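REQUEST
  id: r-88c1
  op: predict_structure
  target: MarR family transcriptional regulator
  payload:
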Amino acid sequence: MRGYAEKIYVLVHRCHEQCLKLMRAKNQPAKELRETGINTRQGIILKILLSEDGLTQKELTSRLEITSSSCGELITKLEQAGYLERRSSPADKRTFNVYLTDSGRILAKQYKKTCVVELEEWASDLTEREKEQLFHLLGKLSKGLNDRISKGSGRKS
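RESPONSE
  id: r-88c1
  status: 200
  body:
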């Protein structure tokens, strides 16, 4: 089984690049989204908040399965662009909730309408079982890589 790590990396990278090419070539409304300067993770945050406005950063971090600092950076960029606002939690002043602004809501609806449909089409060659397996395996790979990064971040150079 040796030698698969590089092959997996190449395939994941190739799929990522192919998805971006499809989006650019096929999806004209996505051009408008690119011009806003948001990336896919930021778009997903907007889409999540469209359904459940007022989540905490911790809840968003959990849904995206990323680090708290990465989520914080995404939220900050969206806030600076005027798409989100943070409000102190009435229950806990140390926590804040994240809400869409009016322009954020418009952009979230546009993202949902264009990019999410495109993502579903990209996976249409897979059965539901294959999608579940791929999701599970990529999640496991991502968690393992994240664990290694976390362990390595405490090392001194």
